[in-house]
């Protein structure tokens, strides 16, 4: 059986240089798929053509900078970090292309937020400011491979099946979170304080998590097996 091809989105800095942490690439490759990074400089009208030409089987929307709040109808607060309108638009187009083609989609951290916003949802721009000081713990200072809270998944969710557990200790690197849920999505994982940590659109094979499993593949067997299980699943679609 041929290895599935997974398109990876990537970040872009203030000087329009692309960048990506290697863990995304390594996690997908180690799980048995072929990762291909698609830069955000492709004309939006040609994204579908590029997806067709590379023979993509799935899409991974990676982590990175904040989404510009204008995409969910809000004015930016001072606490908003670096944004990239170029990346926001390109990832929304990638997601639209994947959904129309019936491609499985995985979102990680920012990628989860992109999926939610693209489907009409919104975000808390800064959890500490808008939800309370106690929510600052979601942007951990501990090493990234260290779990700092536990996520509880719905028992029969895709997340629980792919991670192989209903209760998963995870890392946490976000100062924003889902406020209103996008159309067609369900929240399938939360922390004890009620923050959405996983969302799904099962009928479209869409799954996203707020934490970073790719950074914990060496410290957590569940994180390593997750990518293998996801690649095995997309290989049969």
From TrEMBL:
Name of protein: Gamma-glutamyl-gamma-aminobutyrate hydrolase family protein
Alphabetical list of Pfam families matching this protein: Peptidase_C26
PROSITE patterns tied to this protein: GATASE_TYPE_1
Assigned keywords, A-Z: Hydrolase
Superkingdom in the source lineage: Bacteria
PANTHER family xrefs: GLUTAMINE AMIDOTRANSFERASE PB2B2.05-RELATED
InterPro entries per UniProt: Class_I_gatase-like (IPR029062), Peptidase_C26 (IPR011697), PuuD-like (IPR044668)
GO annotations of cellular component type: cytosol
Organism field: Candidatus Limisoma intestinavium
Single annotated GO MF: gamma-glutamyl-gamma-aminobutyrate hydrolase activity
Keyword rRNA-binding applies: no
């Amino acid at each position: 059986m041929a290895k599935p091809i997974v398109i990876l989105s990537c970040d872009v800095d203030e000087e329009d240089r692309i960048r990506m942490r290697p863990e995304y690439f390594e996690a997908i490759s180690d799980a048995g798929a072929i990762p291909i990074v698609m830069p955000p400089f492709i004309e939006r009208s040609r994204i579908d053509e590029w997806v067709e030409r590379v023979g993509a089987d799935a899409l991974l929307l990676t982590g990175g900078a904040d989404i510009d709040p204008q995409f969910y109808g809000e004015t930016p607060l001072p606490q908003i970090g670096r944004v990239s309108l170029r990346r926001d638009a390109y990832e929304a187009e990638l997601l639209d292309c994947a959904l129309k083609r019936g491609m499985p989609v995985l979102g990680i951290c920012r990628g989860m937020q992109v999926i939610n916003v693209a489907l009409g949802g919104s975000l808390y721009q800064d959890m500490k400011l808008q939800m309370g000081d106690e929510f600052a713990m979601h942007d951990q200072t501990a090493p990234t491979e260290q779990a700092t809270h536990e996520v509880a998944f719905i028992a029969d969710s895709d997340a629980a099946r792919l991670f192989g557990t209903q209760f998963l200790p995870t890392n946490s690197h976000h100062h924003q979170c889902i406020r209103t849920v996008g159309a067609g999505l369900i929240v399938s994982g939360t922390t004890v304080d009620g923050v959405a940590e996983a969302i799904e659109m099962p009928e479209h094979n869409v799954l996203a998590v707020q934490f970073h499993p790719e950074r914990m593949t060496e410290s957590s067997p569940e994180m390593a097996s997750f990518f293998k299980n996801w690649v095995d699943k997309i290989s049969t679609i």
